Amino acid sequence: MTSPKLKSNLDLINECDSFPYPHKSRQLYSQHLHTYYHLRIPTHLNTTLGYLLPSVALTLSNLPDWSVDDTSTPKTVTLTTGEDESTRSAAVEKTCLAMRETGHFAVLEKWRGELYPVYGPGPGREVLFNIERSASPLFGVVSYGVHMTAYTGEEREVKIWVPRRSSTKQTYPSLLDNTVAGGIPSGESPFNALLRESLEEASLPSDLVRRLAKPAGCVTYFYIRDSRAGGETGLLQPECQYVYDLDLTEDGEGVVPTPNDDEVEGFELMGLGEVRGCLGRGEFKPNCAVVMIDFMVRHGYLNREEEGDYVEIVSRLHRFLEFPLG
Amino acid sequence: MTSPKLKSNLDLINECDSFPYPHKSRQLYSQHLHTYYHLRIPTHLNTTLGYLLPSVALTLSNLPDWSVDDTSTPKTVTLTTGEDESTRSAAVEKTCLAMRETGHFAVLEKWRGELYPVYGPGPGREVLFNIERSASPLFGVVSYGVHMTAYTGEEREVKIWVPRRSSTKQTYPSLLDNTVAGGIPSGESPFNALLRESLEEASLPSDLVRRLAKPAGCVTYFYIRDSRAGGETGLLQPECQYVYDLDLTEDGEGVVPTPNDDEVEGFELMGLGEVRGCLGRGEFKPNCAVVMIDFMVRHGYLNREEEGDYVEIVSRLHRFLEFPLG
């Protein structure tokens, strides 16, 4: 029996940052851009806020509050109702509830009752409207999260706290995750989201996280949802994950992350070799693999001499997203 | 007297990563792409290796070994001579010497006698040809370098070793630089280039650098040369800088970088506040400012709560370059 080929780091990035690049394949990129409808609002007509599949655009064309134009270039879906955040948000909520009612959209079956912000262009980072979390991939808007890697030990002797997702989770059951990871709901700062998730998912007390967690950049990618994400495939999900490190080597000695809800089965302390093996065998949730690769790049566990795809990997970990950002 | 407005971190990135983005301004980007000639070789006709200004393309159209087509889309400049690295390199050398002879190209007055590699597409990272370092911006090909930041002290108490460039340097005289920085000539690995430059520029012994220097990713940007770079303005310079950290806090206690050639006037140990002030006043060489911002992001001295442009900054530090990469 031959063992299956291990995934390379670039393979893992391709699985998560799966939307084509204009320069890598101009034709494939154009096909994609001609397929999707651009999400707009009347006060910012030159700004695309997200990309929608034709099936979603068709549904919206039958709902009030929306105008769909498939003769323009690009094709557009415009939210016509609302002149400020709260009236736009109310219209979007009504829409999402109506879409959920039809039962046509599997992603809405995991209704979260949690709002995600959609930002406008310009330095003010105005929230144009909020949208139910489970609906955000239907509209292809950027979503934001936090991911933290807790570790102990130095250099190549480092050991990383890796949780395994519960086998009963609807998305990516039993796959490996980052020590702490979660979405940032509207109105919460990244660091406050991190404090909340650290307690909820890993029982890490806020005073510890406040003292030892260090922001270390963000990872951005453009995911085309596949079957493992649950719900419709082909939906567009540009994402930004703020990344943090939690070095438990000295001050955090003896700290052990433990599950505090039913999302995580348990935590394991893995050496670098074991982490690499799990990455190669595809045992990590795709976006968690990407955050782990970023961790290894930043800490020098990957370098150009060993990794031929180094420069492309480092760029792809930080994709420039073509939408206003928070 | 009012003090001049300080540059923001995004201003500093805009100065270095100055080539437009397709999504930020499609029109400006198209204008740029229609202005430039795409550098090609016959064995890889769909691969653009660099962008050339019309003035350079005009000169090449009068030289043997080149074919210039300004009726195609995009306009192209093709190296017609050579079937392998050495014969192509010889043709490019002959061309560069002829261009230097005319005296028309100011950048060639700083002839370096040092070769830079131009890579082909695909995982093999084949060197298609080598080119004289000073000529690489005339052909708009990607160049590679190493930048290392040496520092001591922890958290916000960190102090960074910052050199000031010699006042007699032709490019960016008297501006601040990174502790160690230099180009990677053809055939040298990034880490070996770092060892060499560390000794040459900062008198840091190789055993120290081998023990303490840590790779921490790379910074990629697309620079349109301005007057401060010397020579012609408007030339295109996509660059990749491999970045390293040198933490002198414990094992490196007492180590003091000192000039070893005439490129650097001296080194100063600066606190974070001082570094920020110098960045804001434009006292750093543009690409060194970008490497310093990357350092501050990776170490958590910049975060989303304090820096509104955080996500754009982190993406822009890692631009996806539209050429084959080394």
UniProtKB/TrEMBL annotation, chains A, B:
Domain Nudix hydrolase, chain residue ranges per copy: 137-294
Domain of life: Eukaryota
Family annotation (Pfam families): DUF4743, NUDIX
MF GO annotations: 8-oxo-dGDP phosphatase activity
InterPro entries in the record: DUF4743 (IPR031804), NUDIX_hydrolase-like_dom_sf (IPR015797), NUDIX_hydrolase_dom (IPR000086)
UniProt cross-references to CDD domains, sorted A to Z: NUDIX_Tnr3_like (cd03676)
Name used for this protein in its record: Thiamine pyrophosphokinase
